[in-house]
TrEMBL record:
Keywords: Hydrolase, Magnesium, Manganese, Metal-binding. One of its GO terms (molecular function) is coenzyme A diphosphatase activity. Pfam families: NUDIX. It comes from Niallia endozanthoxylica. The keyword Metal-binding applies. Transmembrane segments: none annotated. This is CoA pyrophosphatase. Residues 23-156 form the Nudix hydrolase domain. Its cofactor is Mn(2+); Mg(2+).
Length: 209
């Protein structure tokens, strides 16, 4: 293949994430509700009957299905199923920045407004309970931040002799900031806290303009 054909083959392509097709993809919704004329954020506590992360605090969401038109529709569907509300009561849905988590899954977060919170009837098989926190609390409360360090451990038989330095190769060590918010005995951390922190940062940026 000559260089002209190479360039024609690639011309006009839109870049994406390398290996994206093999990654699992999820959508979540950060739900806003009005409580006594004040904006609150709604959280779920995962059912203790779930295999993964039982009892942890999260936002509604889940894996993107082939039947979902797009990431936004997945967030709407999952929220509707988990909170037992009609999809039409989820409005003003706005995308936040998508992210890769430590398991190399792609997470597509959205923020949206639930217009009829009084109709919420959580799916007991997935949701142990729900609660809300005033947005003002998070805007006035800084999270606790702790670092998680990742260690590089090559598998047995890894060809260290093929790389410069061999066994003494200087691997780049990564770390991740974990955010912790505590409210009335509830601990919000992990992916949920990262999405929440990003959302709060966006609010401050807009207010600064």
């Amino acid at each position: 293949m000559n260089i002209t054909k190479v360039m024609e083959k690639l011309k006009g392509r839109d870049p994406s994430i390398l290996g994206k097709a093999e990654l699992l993809k999820y959508s979540v919704l950060l739900p806003l509700v009005e409580v006594e004329n004040e904006t609150h954020i709604l959280f779920e506590v995962r059912s203790m009957n779930l295999r993964r992360q039982p009892g942890e605090i999260c936002f509604p969401g889940g894996r993107i299905d082939e039947s979902d038109a797009d990431q936004r529709q997945c967030a709407i569907r999952e929220t509707s199923e988990e909170l037992g509300i009609d999809e039409s009561s989820i409005e003003d849905i706005i995308p936040l920045d998508f992210m890769l988590n430590a398991s190399s899954n792609i997470i597509y977060p959205f923020v949206g407004r639930i217009t009829k919170p009084e109709q919420i009837n959580p799916n007991a098989s997935e949701v142990g309970e729900i609660f809300t926190v005033p947005l003002s609390f998070f805007r006035e409360t800084k999270p606790e931040v702790y670092k998680i360090y990742y260690q590089v451990i090559p598998e047995e038989g890894f060809p260290l002799h093929l790389i410069p330095g061999g066994e003494n190769y200087k691997w780049t060590l990564r770390h991740l900031d974990e955010y912790f918010y505590q409210y009335k005995g509830k601990v919000i951390w992990g992916l949920t806290a990262r999405v929440l922190h990003h959302f709060l940062e966006l609010l401050e940026v807009k207010n600064a303009k």
